[in-house]
Amino acid sequence: MKNFTMSALALGLCFSAFAQEPVNSAAVQKIRAEGLDKSKAMDIAYHITDVAGPRLSNSPGLKRAQDWALKYFNEIGLKNVHLEAWGEFGKGWQVDKYYAATTLPFYRPIIASPKAWTPGTNGPIKSEVILIKADTVTDLAKYKGKLKGKIIMIESVAIQPLKNSYAPDVVRFNDEALNNIMKPMEPRTGRPGQAGGNNQRAMMLRMMANRAAIDSVLLTEKIGLKLTYARGSYGTFFTSNGASYKLDAKPVSPELEVSSEDYLHILRLLRGGEKVEMEAEVKTSFYDKDPKGYNVIGEIPGTDPKLKDEVVMIGGHYDSWHSGTGATDNAAGSTVMIEAMRILKAIDFKPKRTIRIALWSSEEQGLFGSRGYVKEHFADPTDMVTKPEHAKLSAYYNLDNGTGTIRGVYLQGNAAVKDIFQSWLTPFEDLGAKTITINNTGGTDHQAFDGVGLPGFQFIQDPMDYNTRTHHSNQDVFDRLVEDDLKKSATIVASFVYHTSERAEKLPRKEMPKPQPPRQ
Amino acid sequence: MKNFTMSALALGLCFSAFAQEPVNSAAVQKIRAEGLDKSKAMDIAYHITDVAGPRLSNSPGLKRAQDWALKYFNEIGLKNVHLEAWGEFGKGWQVDKYYAATTLPFYRPIIASPKAWTPGTNGPIKSEVILIKADTVTDLAKYKGKLKGKIIMIESVAIQPLKNSYAPDVVRFNDEALNNIMKPMEPRTGRPGQAGGNNQRAMMLRMMANRAAIDSVLLTEKIGLKLTYARGSYGTFFTSNGASYKLDAKPVSPELEVSSEDYLHILRLLRGGEKVEMEAEVKTSFYDKDPKGYNVIGEIPGTDPKLKDEVVMIGGHYDSWHSGTGATDNAAGSTVMIEAMRILKAIDFKPKRTIRIALWSSEEQGLFGSRGYVKEHFADPTDMVTKPEHAKLSAYYNLDNGTGTIRGVYLQGNAAVKDIFQSWLTPFEDLGAKTITINNTGGTDHQAFDGVGLPGFQFIQDPMDYNTRTHHSNQDVFDRLVEDDLKKSATIVASFVYHTSERAEKLPRKEMPKPQPPRQ
């Protein structure tokens, strides 16, 4: 899941009761038996995380995982299995070596990670750590000629001592929380990011420009390594990128995102006037031979002569950040979707409509994989001119909120599907899945479909430790996956897909949205 | 705090009400003003943790911290400031370099630590990781000649997947928990460790003997590095020792205690038949020039001609484990005790009795510092023959349960002090300190005093994250210390010491215990 703010849509609609949407109980029984009792979810997740590793866009790790998915899709009998380019992404990148430790005032290994798309240190380095006090480039003048090869951190009042949390890291939704999700949310006023008004926005832009200017000077001064504070605690830290993935990206200095405890340790020592010495070695590799981005596609072809050209899609993004193995973000969602396909094949389902799975790439950089696919197949959101396939898609179901089991579904403001989904959830009330909300949720690939007027949905999932410990962290690893949750989710998705495929009509749609300005 | 099981003593006594123990409100006001409003606790803790570092017994880190304490004791005006040897400990040890990462199936740095007192790898090594399946030495025959220089782990059914905890990491005692502490605990039947009966004990001893025999073969085979599972999660792991600290300790193989996620990752891959390759480099140093162990001592001399030879002692252990900086175990307790002394000096207190602080060493290996001191000054627990100083000690107060503020005190079965302590706690009810329990608590240095019939007490403290995250972990660092808690505790201790010093009589004692068999 990308770092978007959750958005909301309040339609003020009343749901009208209409004829009960049919549920095929025999099919549900078969799906439950396969999904809950013969699950392969943990095997699938193991290959995506433990074996393939981190799956940063266009990295060798993503390639390994894509190769495995192609193989597995064929093994379980999917058709039309292929990698499909969605457009140009840029460079792949991976860490080949990370080592850092303080050597003064005492030896302590540092829990950290190179920021994505940053260069290495060009061999082992060792230096005093210099605390740079500079709010603007002008303040940097005093450091001129003194920073070459040095390890540096930048003083900031924004970096505060850690505070204890007295709340659990891992949580499930209780009824109260689910009821809150059901309440229509107030529409936002103003544009996101403008909450504090123009003054605050201007201040932030000025600060960002200052930082960029400072980084540019540090590059010219040829610093050895920059240390940056990483959110998190107790050995967990959250990662991000330190440079652009674009082929023509500007060069940057080597940069480590340092776990809060290790960063604050060094910072307190430097603020206290102690001499801190560090040694480090970082090696990273860039991959630019094929800058195109790819999604993995596979199908269970439709069998109804009139409906087989129509499509039900499921998917989740397959790419991850680099410091964990992207287990909850989003091997979990990918696993559930792959397992749902496996379940449907295992019960020998011959769907009326074609069922298609897509494992997106470059979601983390802006939903690029799904947006590229949607533009190619369905419609360009900048002009809303639709292609023929637009009329053929019944629904797209997405999963990308961690390991937590499905507790319901966001309608994305599409009130007409409420009673349909309510019926389809009925056989899974015993699994805790019963909540339907008119609200929408953002941050991931169903938005690419929703954005061009196609029914695209993301399920409600138990939060677990997604927001506290795993989302983009070094601790987003296999151990965070809960087998029982993945099994339940895959079973529910398989049943939703089954019923979407067999339904007399495609799912009802919202009105077509207005064309959107092109994204930067 | 050492890893002892908490023990209990139920005396079945009724507390009788007797004359109200006096409290000097003016003194309490001064102590509160200094301790709560002008605290130096965080400065003190900073020097013990951030600057001095890990303080394993007889390591250079402990030496740095001891040197700082001597200097600070003099600065705040303590007298008779000195290091005092308590007996022979053995070797010091520290980590000079730690680096390890998987290189196949992909690169991932490993969060781990050398086990204390284990040797290094003698330079960088790189090898396939071998999963040894051997319950006995006989099973090792098939590996003969194949393990030289190799990185190994030993298969064990005891290693299970991680389970989510839905409880908070950081907790404070609520009234219910405090009430439970107040309930007299049932005396234990049988000896500790025999809960499962002789069969279980015999099985455990057999398993331990098997492990030792296997380790001995691995040493002969000259393995490169052994990986061991470390308890913990999310980047936190708990450490221990991998060899003896004694001068004549048997040699062992290099050994890493590996965070659960990284260990389980490798284990799953090896169980799944994947090839795992690792690179590592570990350097450690041993220090055996001076095998004696030392405590840091300082005093505020008594001023009453009749009482100045009598002593009130406070203390806490100063040594720590090696993978963190021993912040909650036990820079916290040491800080509180040092700060209590500082408060008493700052208010220019001229005590009737002498007030003495001791910062013990080698608590983690068996309360050696305090036991050695007690044997030298007060009595030998093996014969209970007392020395003259035994009659002169009023009380010893200890702190060693993390950063959590004092919530009350354990009486260690000494019912006669109940009403005294109740009065002394009264001015601190607003700080949440009000609980008196007849129960005892174990695991730390007050036991050395209690064991020879001297009034030795440990306070009740809020648990915070001591049991979940910090006790002997790599994350036991400065960030875990809560200033407000340390301030409150130091204030309460200073007031207890004040009143103990000024009291007409020494604190009442329990009966002298029977001589104890010598410890191994």
UniProtKB/TrEMBL annotation, chains A, B:
<dbReference type="InterPro" id="IPR039866">
    <property type="entry name" value="CPQ"/>
</dbReference>
<keyword id="KW-0333">Golgi apparatus</keyword>
<feature type="domain" description="Peptidase M28">
    <location>
        <begin position="295"/>
        <end position="497"/>
    </location>
</feature>
<comment type="subunit">
    <text>Homodimer. The monomeric form is inactive while the homodimer is active.</text>
</comment>
<keyword id="KW-0121">Carboxypeptidase</keyword>
<keyword id="KW-0862">Zinc</keyword>
<keyword id="KW-0458">Lysosome</keyword>
<protein>
    <recommendedName>
        <fullName>Carboxypeptidase Q</fullName>
    </recommendedName>
</protein>
<keyword id="KW-0865">Zymogen</keyword>
<dbReference type="Pfam" id="PF04389">
    <property type="entry name" value="Peptidase_M28"/>
</dbReference>
<keyword id="KW-0479">Metal-binding</keyword>
<keyword id="KW-0482">Metalloprotease</keyword>
<keyword id="KW-0732">Signal</keyword>
<keyword id="KW-0325">Glycoprotein</keyword>
<dbReference type="InterPro" id="IPR007484">
    <property type="entry name" value="Peptidase_M28"/>
</dbReference>
<keyword id="KW-0378">Hydrolase</keyword>
<keyword id="KW-0645">Protease</keyword>
<feature type="signal peptide">
    <location>
        <begin position="1"/>
        <end position="19"/>
    </location>
</feature>
<keyword id="KW-0964">Secreted</keyword>
<keyword id="KW-0256">Endoplasmic reticulum</keyword>
